[in-house]
Each structure stands twice: as structure tokens, then as C-alpha cells.
TrEMBL record:
GO terms for biological process: glutathione metabolic process. GO terms for molecular function: 5-oxoprolinase (ATP-hydrolyzing) activity. This is Hydantoinase. Residues 198-329 form the Hydantoinase A/oxoprolinase domain. GO terms for cellular component: cytosol. It comes from the Bacteria. Gene3D superfamilies: 3.30.420.40. Residues 12-178 form the Hydantoinase/oxoprolinase N-terminal domain. It comes from Mesorhizobium amorphae CCNWGS0123. InterPro entries: ATPase_NBD, Hydant_A_N, Hydantoinase_A, Oxoprolinase-like.
């Protein structure tokens, strides 16, 4: 009797985006790139991300009729860390600076990031060769009883800790012994020089620990309740996977997790190693580059919430262009151009679906007027946030906010002056009010290229917009279809310009200025002339996002290369979360403090050797061992390790003079799965 073949394991990918949480159930069977068995979306619940996660995952399980016990790996990308830093959220943290002075707080935005959180300065630290100054932790020890009851964790940064972490280790152990609270030491996060920026990165990491801990605990609780006994992985900002336990200690590394996951998903779905990836959503377009199968990283470190960190993350450029971008008309031109974004509006098609005749009746009223109005096709509606968030409004803001309700109110009946328009914009920026109006999503409904909302209000909005006048006093379009075509063509054209801007910037140019140059504009337009100009990407574009098939269909002639839109482009992030690899690194440095002495700094140890070869060999052995352990902690049992050594030397009177050796080990492998 032949034994039944063992079923292939199933993998669950989750992405918590700003608006939607996506879930994907994926199997390695079906093709060389596997198969998506089911996918689903649920609204992201910012107050408790686990609610949105459960909604998406339950829908996937129901669609696929899958036994939850068949899932052997769960992986998630999350916006929690990114959103927290952008919005200034996180726990109260005490910063311990060893060997620094108060003047160092003024560098790299550290003082701004610290805010009102406490800081303790201690004598100590090391020099560039790892030689120690005298350490005195008595001030820290005296402050710990009071600090321990008022903060959620500690961040410790010592002068030149990357060359000798002994003083950070001493402070870390003292804090843990006296308080029992989480402690982040800067040498655990980065091997780069630059104390204040390393301190900033450490501070932000310490702030995020409790938030990521709650997310992971809630997700693990949800998985346990569904009887999904599988390892939980998290996507880092460079696209690599790490175990949830690893991410709990280094949550700062999950900033830009979602965009990184989308790049991994794009590469997996297309098999393209070199591409420009453009992900269009409702509000923004994110553009990044794939090189050799991996995302290009920001060499300066990720910037989030205005703070430049030392975190390796994707080099992602974000533009205010999406399917729900505001459509406007250029002022004062004879042949005015269509302008898009950067503000997001609620599409009329969506407002009409939610609020019905409250929208269409007003649009029809405006169309009956003999002349177009400046505020035609625009509505204001409350966002539905709790009333307590409306505290602190000025008199004018409170008066206008009172007039706006849960049903869209046309602006021509709400606003009576330009000053009120400015007041309305302040309410919008505070997240209290949405503006509804004509968008590219409405244009797509008018042309029958999108049908998920109501087309009737979209068409009315297009008719109103088409009545707007150009510089000669003529209507800008004859029909709603004509103006809708112009809007969609403009969105595709702007998408091409943003993709080219990213490419020029990656090549070291001023991307925006280069794209705006008349020669590039002529090339993109294929402008006829005696001098024929062309511009072309050296690699294809991968289009991501639910609306990518529509908006990127006309992209190839504008960028001079092809555009691939994968079948599951709408859930690229969730798929990228589950198909990625674990990848970690370890670094060591060998320096020569005095002639004939070679000092090795690796991990948390510092050792001296009398010859260069022995020191470098020991460094290579150390980083290999450290990388292997980190890879296991990060969630893989099958890591391949590559070690590279870079020497800094000089030549003096024909003699080679050793300055420094930098040794890096990179360990990578697929995550372990449940048996």
C-alpha cells in the first residue's frame, strides 16, 4: 500500500497598512514561485492592530477552507514602528550618555527626539582604539530608584562603544539589576561611528519596545486561539525576516517594514532581479529600486518622522500621488494643466455609495446653475474621530466644525469667505474633517474602468469639473468622458515623472530638477524635432497596488522600458512578508593603536594580538560565529554565511602600513517552520 504524500506546508503572510490589513495564504506548490491560495483585506484598527489582523486572517481561512493546523509559518510586516515615530508616540525612556556632554544633545536631532524624557550623563567612554577613560556610574545608580518608577525602559550610549562596549555593558547590567526594565545598548544596534546619531537610534528603539511587544503578544494570542502553532516572523526595514522575539528587542529595525515587504513581494512575483518598483495607493506612490534581487538601501540610514537613524532600510521615495488624489486646475493659464494631489480627497463615487442622495442631489443642483462655481463638486464631512480630539479649537474652527456633520455638506453652502476656507483646511489637517471631491478614482468610474463604488456621483462630478473655464473663458472639456481621460492620462504621466525622478536621484543627480528640464520633458513626450531626444530606464518597472493595472498601462513609452503588473499586485506586501529570507550580519574591526599591536573589537569583546594575520583570522572566526548565533536567534536553522574583509592600508617609503581591517559576515537562510 502506497503511503499518501505529505501535504506541503502552508504559509500565512500579513501586512498591516495605514488603511487596510492584508492577509495571504501561500503554498510553495503550483509553480517555481508558489501559489497564492487565498487573499483578503480588512480595515486596519489603529487602536488595536490585532483586530484588523484577525479580520483579514479569518477571511483568508474561510475563503480557502484551510485547517489552521496546516499553517507552518506566519510572517508579518507592520507600520506600527513607522507610524509611532511619525506621530511622536512611544514609551517614556531614560537616556544614559557615557562620556558625552550636554552639548552633544544638540547634534543629529537628539535633543528634539528626547523631548521631556530624562537624561543622565556619566564619565567614561573610550577612544577610537578602544582605550578606556575612567567610568563612574555612581550618578546613574543614585538616579535609578526614581527613574525606575517613571520610565518604561532605558537607552544607553557610550563614547566609541562600537570600538569597546564595556562601559555600555556595565551600565546595562546595573540598570537591569536595580530596575528589571528593558535596556537597549547602542552597540547592539549599530557598528557605525557617530555617537549622537547612535544615541538617537537607541533612544527610539527603547521607546518602541513596549509597543512592538504588545503587538507581538496580541498576534501570538490570536494565532493560539485559532490553533495556528507556527513560528511568527517580522519583516525588517531592509526586507529581511527576523523572529518575533528578535524584533521585540530591536523594534527600530522594523521601520519601513511595509515598503520593504512590497519590494520582496515584487521580486518574488515577477522573478526580476533588477527593476524599479512603483507602488500606487489611494494617497501616495512609493518608488524604490531592486538591484541584484535585493532592495537598494539608504546609505545614510532610514529617516522617519524627521529623524535620521542608523537603521538599514530601503531607499524609498514617497510622492503625494494616488487614485484618490485631489484633481485641480492650474490657475491663470490660457490652456490650464490638470494638477493632482498631494492632498487626498474622499472620491465622490465612494461618498455617494456611503451617503446616497445627500451627495447626488447637491451635485445635480450645482449642475443646474447657469455658470460653474469655484466650489462645485466639493463636500465636507466629519471623519468620525472621538469628540475629545476636537479639544483646543479656536473660536472660528469650533464654529465651522459645529456646522459640519456626519453627512457631506457642499462647500458652496458651508463657506462664505476665503478665511473660512483656511479654517476648513486646518480642520482637515487635524484629522477632524474629510473633503470629498473629484479624483482619478472617479474618472475611472466614469470610463467604466473601475466599478467598486457608485458611478453616478462620479459622472456628475466629472460634468462639473469639465465646465471649468480656461484662460479664454471656454469650458476645459466637452464631456465628462473627455475630462476623465485627461485626468487618467495626467496620473500616468506624473507617475512616469516620479519614476524617472527616483532613477535620476539614484544616479546621483537632482531628480526633481532633472525631470523638470526641457530636454527631459521633450524626451518623455517624444517631441518631434531636428534633434530627436529619448530617455529610457535600464530596467523594467514593476507596478504594485490595486489600481496599477489601470494607471500603469500607458507607462512603457514614457519611461522607455516595459512595465510588469503581477496578478497579485494588490497584496504584494503580505506576500513579501512570507516569501522573504532571514538575513543578519556581524562586524569586527582590527586596528593598530601602536606599532606591533593589533586590537580586535568584535561583539562584546576586545582582544590584542602581536601580528596582523592572527588578528584578522580571529576576527573572521568571531564574526562567523556571531552571525551564526544571530541567524539562529532570528529564526533560521539553515543559514549560509559569507565573510568579507576590507583592508585600509597606506604605503610609506615603499612599505605597506596597516591601518585597519573591517570584517563583515552575512548569514542568510529560509526561516524555520513548524514540524
Amino acid at each position: 500500500m502506497t503511503a499518501k504524500p505529505k501535504p506541503l506546508p502552508l504559509f500565512l503572510g500579513i501586512d498591516t497598512g495605514g488603511t487596510y490589513t492584508d492577509a495571504v495564504l501561500w503554498s510553495e506548490s503550483g509553480s517555481p514561485r508558489g501559489k497564492v491560495l487565498a487573499k483578503a483585506k480588512a480595515l486596519t484598527t489603529r487602536h488595536d492592530l490585532a483586530v484588523g489582523i484577525s479580520g483579514a486572517v479569518d477571511a483568508v481561512l474561510e475563503k480557502s477552507r484551510t485547517d489552521p493546523t496546516a499553517i507552518k509559518l506566519v510572517s508579518m510586516s507592520t507600520t506600527l514602528a513607522t507610524n509611532a515615530l511619525v506621530e511622536g508616540q512611544g514609551g517614556r525612556v531614560a537616556l544614559v550618555m557615557i562620556g558625552f556632554s550636554e552639548t552633544d544633545l544638540a547634534r543629529d536631532g537628539l535633543k528634539t527626539a528626547l523631548g521631556t524624557d530624562p537624561v543622565v550623563f556619566c564619565p567614561g567612554g573610550h577612544d577610537v582604539h578602544g582605550n578606556a577613560a575612567k567610568l563612574d556610574l555612581s550618578g546613574l545608580e543614585a538616579a535609578l530608584p526614581e527613574l525606575g518608577g517613571s520610565v518604561s525602559g532605558f537607552a544607553v550610549c557610550a563614547y566609541f562603544a562600537t570600538r569597546n562596549p564595556a562601559h555600555e555593558i556595565a551600565a546595562r547590567e546595573l540598570i537591569r539589576e536595580k530596575t528589571g526594565l528593558p535596556v537597549t545598548a547602542s552597540h547592539e544596534l549599530s557598528a557605525k561611528l557617530g555617537g549622537p546619531r547612535r544615541a538617537l537610534t537607541t533612544l527610539l528603539n527603547a521607546r518602541l519596545i513596549s509597543m512592538i511587544d504588545r503587538l507581538v503578544a496580541a498576534t501570538e494570542g490570536f494565532l493560539e486561539a485559532r490553533k495556528i502553532a507556527a513560528p511568527l516572523m517580522v519583516v525588517r526595514g531592509d526586507g529581511a525576516l527576523v523572529s518575533a522575539a528578535f524584533a521585540r528587542q530591536r523594534p527600530i529595525e522594523t521601520i519601513l517594514s511595509g515598503p520593504a515587504a512590497s519590494l520582496v513581494g515584487a521580486r518574488h512575483m515577477t522573478g526580476l532581479d533588477d527593476a524599479v518598483v512603483s507602488d500606487i495607493g489611494g494617497t501616495t506612490t512609493d518608488v524604490a529600486v531592486l538591484d541584484g534581487g535585493r532592495p537598494r538601501l539608504d546609505p545614510e540610514g532610514a529617516t522617519v518622522g524627521g529623524f535620521r537613524t542608523m537603521v538599514e532600510a530601503v531607499a524609498m521615495r514617497t510622492f503625494g500621488l494616488g487614485g484618490d488624489s485631489e484633481v485641480a486646475l492650474e490657475d491663470g493659464a490660457l490652456n490650464p494643466k490638470i494638477l493632482l494631489g498631494p492632498r487626498r480627497l474622499v472620491p465622490l463615487a465612494l461618498a455617494g455609495m456611503v451617503h446616497g442622495e445627500a451627495v447626488t442631489v447637491e451635485l445635480e443642483r450645482q449642475l443646474r446653475a447657469p455658470n460653474p462655481g469655484r466650489m462645485d463638486g466639493r463636500f465636507a464631512v466629519r471623519t468620525g474621530v472621538p469628540e475629545r480630539l476636537a479639544a483646543g479649537l479656536t473660536g472660528a474652527e469650533a464654529k465651522l466644525y459645529e456646522l459640519i456633520g456626519a453627512t457631506p455638506l457642499p462647500l458652496d453652502r458651508l463657506l462664505t469667505s476665503n478665511a473660512q476656507n483656511a479654517t476648513l483646511n486646518r480642520l482637515v489637517s487635524r484629522g477632524l474633517v474629510h473633503i470629498s471631491g473629484f479624483t482619478p478614482s472617479d474618472a475611472a468610474h466614469v470610463l467604466g474602468k473601475q466599478a467598486n463604488w457608485h458611478a453616478a456621483p462620479a459622472r456628475l462630478g466629472a460634468e462639473l469639473f469639465a465646465r471649468k473655464r480656461d484662460g479664454r473663458g471656454q469650458a476645459i472639456a466637452a464631456t465628462p468622458e473627455a475630462i476623465s481621460e485627461r485626468v487618467l492620462l495626467t496620473l500616468t504621466r506624473w507617475s512616469a515623472e516620479y519614476i524617472l525622478e527616483t532613477a535620476f536621484a539614484e544616479d546621483g543627480l537632482d531628480g526633481a530638477a532633472t525631470v523638470a528640464h526641457a530636454l527631459v520633458q521633450r524626451a518623455v513626450d517624444s517631441h518631434p524635432g531636428i534633434a530627436r531626444l529619448s530617455v529610457a530606464l535600464d530596467r523594467p518597472v514593476i507596478g504594485l497596488g490595486a489600481s496599477a493595472p489601470l494607471h500603469y498601462a500607458g507607462l512603457p513609452p514614457l519611461v522607455g522600458n516595459g512595465c510588469v503588473v503581477p496578478d497579485d499586485t494588490d497584496v504584494a506586501n503580505a506576500l513579501g512578508a512570507v516569501v522573504g529570507q532571514v538575513r543578519v550580519s556581524a562586524e569586527a574591526r582590527v586596528s593598530q593603536p601602536v606599532e606591533g599591536l593589533f586590537r580586535l573589537a568584535s561583539g562584546e569583546s576586545v582582544r590584542d594580538f602581536t601580528d596582523e594575520a592572527s588578528a584578522v583570522a580571529a576576527a573572521e572566526a568571531d564574526v562567523r560565529a556571531i552571525a551564526a548565533k544571530r541567524a539562529k536567534d532570528a529564526g533560521t536553522d539553515s543559514a549560509e554565511i559569507e565573510v568579507a574583509t576590507e583592508f585600509s592600508v597606506s604605503t610609506v617609503e615603499s612599505q605597506r602600513m596597516f591601518i585597519e581591517a573591517h570584517v563583515v559576515a552575512v548569514a542568510s537562510g529560509r526561516p524555520r517552520i513548524a514540524v
